[in-house]
Amino acid sequence: MRVGPPSQIAALPNLLIQGPDKRTSRTPPEGPCWLLGRHERCPVRLTHEDVSLRHAVAIPFGCGVFLLDLGSRTGIRTQGNIRQSAWISEARPANIGPYRISIDGGGVESEETASNPMSGFVGEVDRIPEVELRFIGGSLKGTKYRLKRSITLIGSGPRCKVRLRDSKAISRVHACLILGESGLTLVDTLSRSGVAVDGRPTLHAALTEGGRFQIGGHLIEVAACRLQTANTRPAAARAAAPVRRETAAAELTRFLKQLRGVSESMRAAPINARIADGRITSWQARKAMRKDPTRMILDDRFLLMEAVGRGGMGTVYRAVDLDTDETVAVKMPKTLVADPARLRREILISARLHHPHIVRLLDVGRDLRFLVFDFVAGLSLSQIVATQGPQPVESVVRWIAETADALEYARGTGVIHRDIKPANIMVDDVGKAMLLDLGLARLDESVGGWGGSDEAYAGITRIGCAVGTADFMSPEQALCSDQIDARTDIYSLGCTMYAALAGRCPFHADNPVLLAKKHIQEFAPELHGLDPDLAGILRRSMEKQPADRFQTPMEFKDALLEWLNVPVAAAM
Known about the structure:
The chain is an alpha+beta fold. The strands form eight sheets. A six-stranded antiparallel β-sheet has the order 13-12-22-21-18-19, with no helix packed on it. The protein starts with 14 loop residues before the first strand and ends in a 9-residue tail after the last helix.
């Protein structure tokens, strides 16, 4: 079926707003949702200074009203906690600044058992809806995106599932798509440049299959929009509608909490039963047999599934976000107790970097105990080379060019990575390179905008400290020079390219001191059979003197793409 415009607006509840003066106002909806904020264009205007210009959006579903923060300064408060989203009802209000937000009746009985529309579909949906977007104009032309949730944010910010980051005209949360039982709706969240549907500017509009909307320079078509719900099923089938089940991660979390009061000798049987039917990983089983199994549950939100990587900076785990039921990566740094300033530094850097080839920071644990990143399904370049040997030349060139693109973006924001190596470049399951681990990154105060100089973190990246990884360390790092800039990253990226092409590091020595000496004094052996032009690009990236290298990551990237015969302007 084709999904038409929403048909339930008349039945929506009213939003109740209790202000600082304790007076309550009742606000009926003016469309498919309510926008709340200090901006004069907000339908629900909250004028207190603690409220951001566009603070939140309240979206009604059949089971209640879902309140979603739009990247505000002060967030949403529920039950004493700052949240990014919450179900609200008359009995379960939320606070935005000094305002109490609720609805006049109805709502979910328990938020803990309600589905999260940011992670799945809400309502009586028989099967996963077939709703697909296709980019038909702009830099992402040809890209397809299938909607997998009831609320999908569109914009340049890290919380957006459809991320558009190639224009200043695109807001961090530019718009949202709402998929309900009655159809698909596009809502402009008071963005900088607005949205247009079928060529006409609009604040909100129903979308049908074949409909088109524009955000910035992107023209997007609804390629498919089919949905079967309680309203479209035969009556006999409606009675047999499936009951929403607890997610596997939530069930396992509850099981681990129950184990806390069970002696270790009595845990084996229930744990083995879950191993047999695949409801617990072998890593979790080993941990659950020891001490407190709830240590796998961080901040009562992130369930650790298995360790996927270990290094000098800490351990990385595959985990499930119990709020969204999505897979994430959790990094637990080794240096937290001894060096909390280093972790604060990584948080500061990661939170500011939003690029298609840099792994996103999603959240931070209480007391800085851990960081939560997007999970990249794939292997690090070091794992690929270790298991498969030298890689195809064109694949390596594209991975290095994508990483150089990320480094150019970082350079523009004042960040020098300083630990570029194959282990810090992930290749995802579609072959895209992703840069990670900014733990050694240094801020360039000359760029500005970071709220503090490098001296605020004295001892972490102080000039004179040789930090990095010896196999890929630049000569100036080995010499503890004060001339550390983006050309340092270019040298390390050149060494990484060499290792991926050769299946081995450019230099070998018995200890780090001798290895550093080789980086300073010797040139890497030539790679036989490598195209002379590409060999020249590689050689220039690994020159001993920074002045002889490519001067910016952009220059390095452009040279690689020119060798690939890819138009430079359209490559990334």
